[in-house]
Amino acid sequence: MDYIKKELPTKINKIGWILTLAGLLIVIISYLVDVQRTSYNNLIALIFFSGIAIGALILVALEYLAGAVWSTPMRRVSEFLASSLPFMIILAIPLFLNIHNLFQWAQPELVKNDLALQHKSAYLNVPFIAIRFGVIFLIFYSFYVIFVRNSRKQDTTKDQRLTKINLKFSAAFMPLGAILLTLFAIDWMMSLVPHWYSTIFGFYFITSTLLAGLAATTYVAVTLNEKGYLHPSIGEDHYYSYGALLFAMTNFWAYIAFSQFMLIWYANIPEETTWFLLRWTGSWKYLSVGMVLVRFAIPYVGLLSYNSKMNPKNLKRIAIFILFAHLFDTYWLIMPSYSPGIIFSFYEIGFPVLIVGVIILVFYAQAKKYNLVPIGDPKLQRGLDFHL
Amino acid sequence: MENKKIYTVTALFDTPDEITDAAKATAGAGYTKFDINTPYPVHGMEKAMKLKPSYLGYVTLFFGLSGAAFAMLFMSWVSIYNYPLVIGGKPFFSWPAFVPITFEVTVLSAAIGTVGVLIALMFRFPNTAHPLHDTNYMKKVSADKFGLNITSLDPLFDENKIKEFFKGLGGKEIETIYEEDKKAEIKVFDYRFIMTLVLVAIVTAGTTYFVLNKLLYMQPFTWMGEQDKVIAQSESNFYNDGFSMRLPVEGTVARGYLPYEYKGAPDSVIKFISNPLPFTKDIIEKGKMRFDTYCSPCHGYFGQSDSRLHDQFPKPPTLHSDKVRNWPDGNIYNVITNGQNVMPSYEKQISREDRWAIIHYVRVLQRSLNAKDSDIDTSQVKREK
Amino acid sequence: MTTIDFTHEIPVIEGKPAASSIDEMVSAPLNQKPGKVWKILFTITVTMLTVGSVALGLTFYYGIGLWGNNQPVGWGFDIVNFVFWVGIGHAGTLISAILFLLRQKWRTGIARFAEAMTIFAVMCAGLFPAIHTGRAWLDGYLFPYPNANHIWVNFISPLLWDVFAVSTYFTVSLIFWYIGLIPDLATLRDRATTKWKKISYSIFSLGWRHSARHWQHYEKAYVILAGFATPLVLSVHTIVSFDFAVSVIPGWHTTIFPPYFVAGAVFSGFAMVQNVLIFVRQAFKLQHIITLNTLEKMNQVMILTGSIVGYAYATEFFTAWYSGNQFEMFTFINRALGPYAWAYWTMISCNVIFPQLFWFKKIRRSILFMFIIGVFVNVGMWFERFVIIVTSLSRDYLPSSWHMYVPTVYDLAILMMSFGLFFTLTLLFVRTLPVVSIAEVKAHVDGAQPVHKGVH
Question: Which fold has domain C26-137+157-444?
C-alpha cells in the first residue's frame, strides 16, 4: 500500500465555518420570527440530516456484512460523514422544546376529544418519544463508535480480527437498525397526521436514508478522488459501482413509493386517503407531481446508461441532485401538515445551509486527524484492484 | 482440395493470457476480419480485439419504450374510448392501475426484442452450416482451448503469411479451413416440403376445428351453458296446458302499472292533478311523436279536427276551442285515459308519461294558433315605416 | 475454526478443476443410463402427478364444488398454492439476475439449477389460478384480444395484472435460461457421440461458435436481461401481493405487502433450492462446484429475507394496534388466538424462530441442520399464505357471514400433484440438460481470466 496522506486545503474549513455561521444566524432569526414554522423546518432538518449520517453508517455496516471489497478504499468517506451523528441531538433539542407546536398528539386539549389519539397515547406521548429518541441515537452512535474505532485501530495494527469483529457487529446492526429507523419514521413523520397509518412507511424511510447516505458518500468520494486525495487506483469501476447502487436505490424508492400510493389510492379508505389528499390540494399538487420527476425520473434518466454511471462529472451532479431530492422529499412529507400550500422563504434555507456547514466542518476535522483511506484494512488491496 | 475456397486459418492457444496477447497482436497487425473463439467469455477481450462497444442497449431501449407506450396507450384507448366502464368508482383513465401491466409489457417487449435482435440479426442464428462447425478447431475451443482465426475476407489475407504470423505468436495446431462445396439449397417445390406444409395445415385446421366446434360442446364443457331450467315461450310437459309460462296470480299489479285512480271521480278532483313532467324541448318533442302517432288520425296533425280518416269515423271537435283551452291538464288526461263520447280509452296504448307529454304538446299547439301580439319578440322584427 | 483471510477472495470453485474435467463431469449424467435411485424417485413423483391429475380431472368434470372453498372463503388451497409456488419461483431469478448484478460470484455453480427450478415452479403456480377459474378451457379470455364479444378484459383488476406478471415472468425466465444454455449446448454438441444427440444439440445451440465477437454481445445481453429480470422478479410477487392489498379486507389491505411478499418469496425459494441442491451435489459429485460456502451464503440470504419477513409480521401487528382500527386489531388477535392459531404459530415458528439458528456458523454449515431448517421454512411459508388468505376471509367485517374453511381430499391431492409435477420436471431436467452452467463455471475457476497487467 503506497498511500501518502494529502491534507485537505484549509479553504474547506473556512467554507464550513461560513456556512455554519450563516445557517445558524438564519435559524436564530427564523426562530425569533416564527417559532412554529421554524420548528417544522427544524424537523425537516432532523430527518434530512439523519438520512445522511445514518445512511452513511448503514453503508459502512453493509460493506462489512456483504463482504464487499470495491467500497473499502472509500469507506473512510462514509465513516467521516457518519461521524457528525451527534449533531442529531442538537437538532432535536429545539424540537422537544416545541413539541406542542408540531404534533397534535402532544396537545392535551386535542387528545381529550379524540378517541383514536387516546388509544395511541400509550405510544405517542412526550416522555416515551424522548426515551425512544435517546435509545435510537445511543444505539446508532455506539455502533458508529465500534465500527470506526476498530477501523482506525486497524490502520496501525493491520489486525484481520478487527474486520471480523466489525462483521459480527454489522450483522447485529442490520435488524436493529431497521427496527429503530422504522420507529424513528413513525415517531417523527407518520405521527404528524396522527390518524394516518401505513405499514410500508418504515421501508420508505429506510430507503430514503440509504439513498441519502449513498448520494453524500458518492459525491464526496468522487470529488476527493478526482482531486487526488484518495488513491490513484480508484477509478471508473468504483464510480460505476456507486452509480449502479444509486440507480438501483432510486428504482427501489420509486417501487416503495408507488406501492404505498397505489394501494391507498386503490382501496380508497377515507382514513388512509386523507394523507394523500392533503398532498393533492392546492399548490401541493405540483409538488406531488414534482416528486415523480425529482425523486425518480431525473435520477433515473441521469444514471440509465452504462457510461453515465462511470462519468465522474455526471455522477457528482446526480449525487448532489439526489441529495436535493431527499430534502425535497422530506419537505413534501412534513410541510403539508403545517401549511395549506407550498411555502418557501428564508425559514426553509437556514437549516440546510447549517447542516451542510456542520457536515463539512466535522468532515474536515476528521480528515485532518485520520487517514482518508483505511490503510490497514485487509480488503483494501482487493478493493483497489477491483475491476468490473 | 485445391478448388475449395479457403474460409479461414486457425491457431490454438492454451491460456487466457496468451490469447489476449495474440488478439492484441493481431489487431495491432492491422487485421480486421479475424475472430477469437473461447469456451467462455475472456475479460478484456473486446479491448484487445479493438471491437466497437455493443449497441444492444439501444435496441433494448427502443423495444422497452415501444412496449411501454403501446401498453399505456392501448389500455387508455380501451378504457376511455372503446369500451368505457366504471369499475370500483375509479376514473376511466386510472393510470396507477395501468402501471403494473405497462411495466410487465415493457419488460416482455424489451426482453424478447433484445434476444430476437441478438440471435437473429447480430449472430445470424440459427446457422448450423458454418464452415467452422464440426472441425477439430471447434471441438477444442468448445472444451478448453483458445482459438484465433483470420478469415479470407480480410483485405490482408495471405494464407502463408498468416501461418507464419501465428507461429510467431506461439499458436499451436495451425490449420486451414475450407468452405463447404455446396450449400444445402432450399427447394421450395420439393414434394417433401410441400407435403409437410400440407400436413401442418391439415393438422392445425383440424385441431382448431375440433377444439372450437366439438370439444367445447362436449360434456362437461357445456354444463354452465345448458341448465335444467324452463326457457320462456318453450313447451312444457310439466303443466297440463303445455305452456312453460304461467299467468300471474289474479289481482297482481305490475310494477309501475298502478290502475288509474280517478276513474269516475268528479271533475273537481281531476282539476288538482298537475302535469308531473317539466316543460322542456325534449318532452315536447316526445309528445309530438306520440300525438302524431295516436291522436292525429282523428284530431289532425294540428288538433284542428282535420282528420285523415276521410269521414270513416266521426270527426272530433277542435282542440282549439275555448273550452279545451281552459281545461286544466288533469281534465285532458282524464279524457285520454277514460275516453269521452265516441273517443275510446287510450289507457292501454299510451303510457302515463307519454300522456302527460302529449298534453304538453297539445298546449303548444293551442298556443301556436292563438298567439298574442305580445308574443312577438319586437327586437327581432324590422319595423315598417 | 479456521480464520478467514480477508486479503484473498475465496475461490467459488474449489480445487481448480481443468476445463475439460468440468465438461466431463457435467455431461456425465446425460450420457449414462439412469440409476436405481433416480428410477425410484421418478416413480414416486410420477405417481404423485398421476394421482393428483385424477383429482384434477374430477374437478373439471364435477366443478370446483369439490374443493373446500365456500362463502366467504372463496380463495382456499388454490390461491395458497399459487402464491406458494410463485414464491418458490423467485429464488432462481434472484440468483441469476440480482446476485449477478451484485457480482456475487458464488451464484455461478447454482444459477442454472435455480433458474430451472424457477421455470418449473412458475409452471406449477400458473396451474392454480387457471383451474380456479372453474372452466379452465376458457382461460384464453384472460388475454386481451379483439374477441367476438367485443369486450376487453378489466385492466384495473389485479387478477389481470397477475396474468401479465406470471406470463411475462415465465417467458423472460425461459429466455434467460435458454440464453444461458446456448454455449453449454454447443459444448455438448461438440462432445456428442450419437447422431440424435448431435442433431438435437445442434438445433438447440443454434450454431453457437464461441466467437469472441458473439461473446461480447452475449455478455451485454446477459447484463441487460439481468437488469430487466431484477425489477421483474420484484414486480411479480408485488403484483401477487396487490391481489390482496388493493382490497379492503382487514389483514389484506396493508401497504407493506409488496416488499414483504417479495422477501417471503425469496426466503421460501432459497429454502427449496437449497433443499434440492443438497441432493444434487451429492448425487452428481458436484461438491467442489456447489460448495459448502455457497450453501452457507444461501443460508445467510435466508436469514436476511427471513428477518425481513419477521420485521413485516411485527410491523403489521404493531400498526394494527397503532391504527386504533377495531377491525384491524381483531384480525390480528384472531390470527394469533383464533381458530387458526395453530397455523399462525406454525408460520411464526417456522419462518421467524427456527431460521434464527442460522446465526450460528456451525448450523449454517451443517448439511443436516440446514436441510431441516429449509424444510421448515417451506412449510412455514406455505402456512403464511394460508394464514393470510383463510383467517382474513373466514372472519371479516360481518360476524353473521363467518365460516370456517376445511380443505377436502381433492385440495390435498391437487397440492400433491403440483409437487409431483415440480419434482418430475426437476428429475427430467437433471438427466437431459447440464445442471450447472459449464461456460460460467469455467470462467470462474481460478486462473481462468487473464491477469490484469499494468493497471496501477
Answer: Formate dehydrogenase/DMSO reductase fold (1.20.1630)
**Residue/partner pairs of C237-240 with CB below 8 Å, 24 or more apart:** C237/C86, C237/C87, C237/C90, C237/C261, C237/C262, C237/C264, C237/C265, C238/A255, C238/A259, C238/B100, C238/C262, C239/B100, C239/B104, C239/C158, C239/C161, C239/C162, C239/C164, C239/C165, C240/C82, C240/C83, C240/C86, C240/C162, C240/C165
A262 touches chain B (CB under 8 A): yes
Q: Domain map of chain B by residue range? A: 6-178, 187-246, 267-372
Report the predicted TM-score, pTM, of the whole model to 2 decimal places: 0.85
Segment 284-313 of chain A within 8 Å of chain B by CB: 305-306
Q: How many CA atoms lie within 13 A of C409 on its CB side?
A: 4
Partners for A (CB, 8 Å, 3+ pairs)?
A: B, C
Show residues of chain A in contact with B97, CB under 8 Å: 262, 266
The minimum CA-CA distance between B168 and chain C, rounded to whole Å, is 20
Contact C254/A at CB under 8 A: yes
Domain boundaries, chain C: 26-137+157-444
Are A266 and B96 in contact (CB < 8 Å)? yes
Domain residue ranges of chain A, discontinuous segments joined by +: 10-242+345-384
d(CA B23, CA B34): 9
The shortest C-alpha distance from A255 to chain C (Å) reads: 9
State the best of C159, C167, C199, C216 to mutate against chain B, taking most chain B CBs within 10 Å: C216
Number of H helices, E strands in chain A: 18, 0
The pLDDT tens digits along chain C (456 residues) read: 345 677 777 777 777 778 778 888 888 888 888 888 899 999 999 999 999 999 999 998 888 889 999 989 999 999 999 999 999 998 888 888 888 888 888 888 888 999 999 999 999 999 999 999 888 888 888 888 888 778 889 999 999 999 999 999 999 999 999 999 999 999 999 888 888 888 888 889 888 999 988 999 999 999 899 988 899 999 999 999 999 999 999 899 999 999 999 999 999 999 999 999 998 888 888 888 888 888 998 999 999 999 999 999 999 999 999 998 899 999 999 999 999 999 999 999 999 999 999 999 899 999 999 999 999 999 999 999 999 999 999 998 889 999 999 999 999 999 999 999 999 999 999 888 998 888 888 888 877 888 754 333
Do B43 and A268 lie within an 8 Å CB cutoff?
Answer: no
8 Å CB contact of A263 and C245: yes
Among A199, A201, A205, A388, the residue to mutate for chain C (most C Cβ within 10 A): A199
- Looking at the structure, give the CATH architecture of the domain made up of residues B267-372: Orthogonal Bundle (1.10)
Chain A: give the shortest CA distance to residue C275, in Å.
23
The complex's ipTM works out to 0.92
